[in-house]
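Problem: given the chain below (205 residues), write out its structure.
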Amino acid sequence: HTRADNFRRAVWSSYKAPRDEVSKHRPLLYSALREWMRENYDCRTKPGLEADDTIGILATGKINGLPPVENRVICSIDKDLDTIPGWHFNWRKAENGVYDIDPRRAYYNLLFQTLTGDATDNFPGCPKVGPKTAMQILLPIANLTNIDDLMSFGWELVVQAYQRRGLTEGDALTQARCARILQAEDWDFEKNEVRLWTPPKGDRS
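Solution.
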């Protein structure tokens, strides 16, 4: 599968577009090494998905041949995977050991990424919102312990931030779908296709 097959391209057409040119100049042995790895290791891919998405699905779903979810560890240096709940290990920060991202923190990280965007992946997030502003916007949910309240109220805060800058909830949702690394609930195992993420709706009246 090529980057053009990535499901996020249908969500945000310029997603990772700057990398298209770079991909044309991969190292000479890239394809051969990838094929060798597939032949010698248990490799799993899914159509239209990035490796991060496949990892997120494998880390959170009931998958044949894998240990229980609570015994799996995501090993990666990519901060995007901190939007996936579960055990994590970053070998560039090995001194931190294996650490746990609980569902509250994982969802907070998703909202944070929806606000700040990701220049590497070429989606902008909310205009003029950097990390410090994003933390300020999300401050009201920082200490919420109820996951349902955190999810619904957190999404309201994100939408309000977009609206204050002349954008819509639809704009926020587009950026969230770029930011969200898929979990098992986002993948239809029978149809082999993505279920696009829908934000939680709560009643805070």
